[in-house]
């Protein structure tokens, strides 16, 4: 290892143990090269643009007494090749070959002559894999491909044919480096280059790049400067429990260095794997308020715009999946420029519970303003879905890629239009990048086969996923990047993360389309897996030379797989120190005493002193305490602080809403007052649900009985079955299993015929239908039912009864259909008409049915009729007399008093189906209720909350 202090300009390689020594020698060499004049040209090749900028800043500080040198240029090897080739005009009228164009040309060859790939030629992954191998074959494809193994020869054939189609308009990296190497025999070029120096040259995987570097040594006298350092005894090597703790520890250490006066731009943080370190480090640095410079944690694919476009392109234009549309709407980037849409939440509710269609033949029906608005909103949403499908059809049916790009541009402009003139910078940047991805599709015109939906989706998805955002500006914050980004940098402090086997080195996989075993058959040798691994180790050692102070970290465990990691074999037996966990750091301050984030400071302060003046934290702790200990407060459904504001006494209430309060008062508050409905996606069902079955049977019987009541149709089982068949056709879901749907239809037919036989028998006994779907208390229909309570107040009821019959002797009977079993209603009787205050439909419906009495002296009957043959009882009911009304008045009065007083405790619902209780966590809600149910504030209502036996 040379540490010579006498600079010279002779070709060769000079090696150092630290980057600082390399830079000093480099500055001395530049000074010697410009000894005859400060404008003597010097070309310095850096491993990256960031390293070039660092070296330029260093030379500017130390050259000519800090005045810098006008004759020094810094650039990467590829940039130099580009400059030399352009000066000779060897690649005139050709432009660099983008990966998307190469892949398009490969796709064209696979479509025309797939050869051995005939069974997978249509898969985008096939073209992608062959295109990646084709980029390697640019430099090494032999003249005689027949000597190659069949699969490799087939790839070489496709490569050659695709390359021939691209040569006239595009050039590859191989073309660029070859042209640049050939131009080095020009005295003018060599004079312009002057002294050529290279800082930390990386091992070239591309033989063309290696050949160009060799030509620079031969013709321009290239001098190469390398700095590499093995892990030294005593060097700080730390291990954390996992990558997240590793990132948190580094942020604490960085904060300490900043506090000690080290400028942020002199600190570097470098990781072995972008996933998970890039996002973790960006998040932790942001939380600590530490500015950083490097590739951001997010790319175009992570933005709502990128995700939205990708998701919408996955739709079938003929039948767009509304769930995907709702998902994109919920992300907030979708904005329909040519129309108006309800909010995403409103559209979700409309999708889960579409509005009922207005009956075209019912001139007397008048919908409420709320229902009219729902219908209008639903029509807008469905119109949007239809227009979206039409625009997707335009994209997917484009004749060429230029047309597809135009259609996609219009698509984005229509459905992802800016919401205002002043967009946030990150949103505007995402829009610009997306349009760039779309414009790249035009390059495929005349190269790739005509666009297909799969090709458009795949090309857009890959283009979107390849765009990453840059964070910060050079010199303004901590340097963040990969191991490669850290090589050749001028820094004071460097932190090296992820130094564990499996990450550094990561597993290198052999390319099955170009295996190492055929290396001797190629035009030029390619590095083998072992050589590439050795090059990665050398690159790691060069990274260790960066900075005068280095700290190496590695995780002991994996965040994802749950396995364990060992220190990297590249650490050569270094003895690591184990870092305590983040939780331990909160209590003990490890590894330093300085909290990195405001949150960490608050937690540490709380642990040290309970008296923390934080209103949010106090409320959170109070809520947790009350729910744990069973204190009935505002955190557990006690809304007494807003008593009288929850229930509107002038607004009619349905009897089922009272039943909902008894089942779970908190759920009643969420559903009926706050309108927090659950999203139930019926398109995910594999068979008809109980609710859908009940609605279907109700609709069929309603249509059938209405015809009998109006006298427009005779009694006819054939007509009943015809109505059922129409309902089946309207209700059928393609997602339902065919055999279960056929079974359910058969059962429904049998239940409807059973009901028909029962009704026919009762008509013969003197009963006649006088009303169907009779509504009261709504915007249309009869006035609400009024019930005067014992405290003098009045409660108004609304509802809709399935059927009202009248007997020839004057008796009136109200019937409510039930399509399920009768077990839930077994406790109903004349002596217990509300089943202990849990059932209120029958007595309220009975009060309404009194309006159909022709003689007030005759009795009014109310009954549930069970349509299913599985029900143990065909009917459950009783006569609605004074005693029944008295019980109703007492029970309703107690419940209304509770609601007016703001009593909404979290009594758990059944966990046998999805509801608010299961959404909140059934076990947690049950625990709260067990602690809460004996609270004195709930004692007056305890009889409603008896556990079912």
Q: How many helices does DSSP assign?
A: 32
> What proportion of the residues is helical, as a percent range?
40-55%
Please give the number of β-strands.
22
**How far apart are the termini?**
86 Å
Could you tell me the radius of gyration in angstroms?
39 Å
Oligomer: single chain
**Average predicted local confidence, pLDDT:** 89
Largest sheet composition = 8 strands, mixed
List keywords for this structure.
32 helices; disordered N terminus; 5-stranded parallel sheet; alpha/beta; 8-stranded mixed sheet
Describe the structure.
The model is unreliable at 1-9 and 358-365 (pLDDT under 50). A hairpin with a 5-residue loop joins strand 17 (785-788) and strand 18 (794-797). It is built from 32 helices and 22 strands. The protein is 45% helix and 12% strand. With 949 residues, it is an alpha/beta fold. The radius of gyration is 39 Å and the shape is elongated. Helix 5 (124-140) packs across helix 6 (150-166), helix 24 (655-663) packs across helix 25 (665-673) and helix 26 (690-710) packs antiparallel against helix 27 (717-731). It has an eight-stranded mixed sheet with strand order 11-10-12-9-13-14-8-15. A five-stranded parallel sheet has the order 1-7-6-2-3, sandwiched between helices. A five-stranded mixed sheet has the order 16-19-20-21-22.
């Amino acid at each position: 290892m040379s540490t010579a202090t006498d600079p010279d300009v002779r070709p060769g390689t000079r090696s150092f143990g630290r980057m600082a020594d390399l830079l000093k020698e480099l500055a001395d060499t530049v000074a010697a090269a410009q000894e005859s004049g400060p404008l003597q040209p010097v070309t310095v090749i850096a491993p990256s643009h960031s390293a070039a900028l660092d070296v330029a800043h260093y030379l500017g500080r130390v050259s000519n007494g800090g005045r810098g040198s006008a004759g020094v240029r810094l650039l990467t090897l590829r940039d130099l090749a580009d400059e030399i080739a352009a000066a000779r005009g060897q690649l005139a009228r050709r432009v660099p070959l983008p990966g998307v164009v190469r892949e398009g040309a490969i796709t064209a060859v696979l479509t025309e002559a797939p050869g051995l790939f005939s069974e997978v030629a249509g898969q985008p992954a096939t073209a992608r894999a062959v295109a990646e191998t084709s980029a390697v074959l640019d430099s090494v494809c032999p003249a005689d491909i027949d000597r190659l193994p069949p699969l490799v020869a087939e790839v070489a054939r496709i490569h050659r044919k695709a390359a021939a189609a691209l040569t006239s308009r595009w050039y590859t990296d191989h073309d660029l480096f070859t042209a640049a190497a050939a131009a080095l025999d020009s005295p003018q070029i060599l004079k312009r280059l002057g002294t050529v120096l290279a800082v930390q040259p990386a091992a070239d995987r591309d033989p063309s790049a290696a050949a160009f570097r060799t030509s620079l040594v031969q013709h321009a006298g290239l001098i190469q400067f390398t700095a590499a350092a093995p892990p030294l005894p005593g060097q700080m090597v730390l291990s954390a429990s996992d990558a997240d703790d590793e990132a948190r520890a580094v942020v604490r250490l960085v904060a300490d260095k900043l506090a000690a006066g080290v400028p942020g731009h002199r600190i570097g943080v470098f990781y072995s794997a972008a996933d998970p370190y890039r996002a973790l480090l960006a998040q932790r640095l942001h939380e600590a308020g530490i500015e950083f410079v490097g590739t951001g944690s997010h790319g175009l694919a992570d933005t709502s715009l990128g995700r939205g476009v990708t998701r919408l392109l996955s739709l079938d234009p003929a039948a767009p999946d509304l769930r995907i549309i709702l998902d994109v709407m919920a992300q907030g980037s979708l904005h329909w420029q040519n129309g108006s849409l309800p909010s995403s939440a409103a559209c979700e509710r409309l999708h889960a519970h579409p509005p009922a269609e207005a009956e075209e033949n019912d001139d007397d029906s008048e919908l409420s303003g709320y229902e009219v608005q729902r219908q209008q909103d639903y029509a807008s949403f469905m119109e949007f879905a239809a227009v979206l499908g039409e625009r997707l059809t335009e994209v997917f049916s484009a004749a060429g890629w230029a047309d597809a790009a135009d259609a996609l541009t219009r698509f984005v402009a229509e459905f992802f239009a800016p919401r205002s003139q002043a967009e946030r910078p990150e949103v505007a940047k995402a829009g610009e990048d997306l349009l760039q991805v779309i414009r790249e599709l035009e390059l495929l015109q005349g190269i790739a086969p005509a666009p297909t939906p799969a090709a458009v989706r795949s090309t857009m998805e890959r283009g979107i996923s390849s765009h990453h955002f840059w964070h910060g500006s050079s010199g303004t914050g901590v340097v963040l990047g990969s191991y490669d980004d850290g090589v050749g940098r001028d820094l004071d402090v460097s932190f090296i993360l992820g130094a564990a086997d499996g990450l550094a080195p990561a597993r290198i996989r052999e390319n099955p389309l170009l295996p190492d075993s055929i290396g001797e058959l190629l035009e030029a040798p390619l590095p083998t897996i072992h050589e590439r691994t050795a090059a990665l180790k050398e690159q790691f050692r060069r990274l260790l030379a960066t900075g005068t102070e280095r700290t190496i970290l590695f995780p002991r465990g994996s965040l994802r797989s749950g396995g364990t990691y060992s220190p990297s074999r590249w650490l050569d037996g270094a003895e690591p120190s184990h870092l305590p966990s983040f939780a331990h750091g909160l209590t003990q301050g490890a590894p330093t005493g300085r909290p990195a984030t405001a949150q960490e400071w608050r937690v540490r302060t709380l642990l040290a002193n309970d008296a923390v003046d934080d209103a949010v934290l106090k409320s959170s702790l109070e809520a947790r305490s009350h729910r744990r200990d069973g204190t009935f407060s505002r955190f557990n459904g006690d809304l007494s602080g807003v008593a009288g504001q929850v229930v509107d006494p002038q607004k009619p209430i349905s009897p089922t809403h009272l039943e909902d309060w008894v089942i779970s008062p908190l759920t009643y508050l969420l559903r009926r007052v706050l309108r927090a409905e659950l999203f139930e996606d019926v398109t995910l069902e594999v068979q008809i649900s109980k609710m859908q079955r009940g609605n279907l049977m109700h609709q069929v019987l309603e249509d059938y009985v209405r015809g009998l009541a109006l006298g427009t149709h005779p009694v006819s089982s054939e007509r009943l079955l015809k109505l059922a068949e129409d309902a089946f056709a309207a209700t059928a879901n393609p997602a339902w299993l065919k055999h279960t749907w056929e079974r359910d239809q058969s059962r429904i037919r049998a239940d409807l015929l059973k009901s028909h036989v029962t009704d026919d028998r009762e008509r013969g006994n003197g009963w006649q239908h006088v009303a169907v779907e009779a509504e009261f208390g709504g915007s249309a229909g009869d006035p609400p039912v009024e019930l005067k309570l014992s405290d003098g107040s009045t409660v108004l009821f609304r509802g809709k009864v399935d059927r009202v019959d009248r007997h020839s002797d004057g008796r009136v009977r109200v019937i409510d259909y039930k399509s399920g079993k009768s077990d839930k209603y077994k406790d109903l009787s004349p002596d217990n008409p509300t089943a202990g205050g849990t059932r209120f439909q029958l007595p309220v419906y009975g009060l309404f049915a009194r309006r159909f009495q022709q003689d007030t002296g005759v009795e009014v009957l109310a009954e549930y009729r069970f349509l299913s043959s599985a029900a143990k009882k065909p009917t459950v009911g009783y006569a609605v007399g004074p005693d029944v009304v008295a019980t109703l008045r007492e029970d309703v009065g107690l419940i209304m008093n509770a609601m007016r007083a703001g009593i909404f405790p979290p009594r758990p619902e059944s966990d046998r189906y999805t509801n608010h209780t299961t959404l909140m966590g059934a076990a947690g809600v049950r625990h709260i209720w067990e602690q809460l149910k004996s609270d004195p504030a709930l004692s007056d209502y305890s009889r409603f909350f008896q556990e079912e036996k």
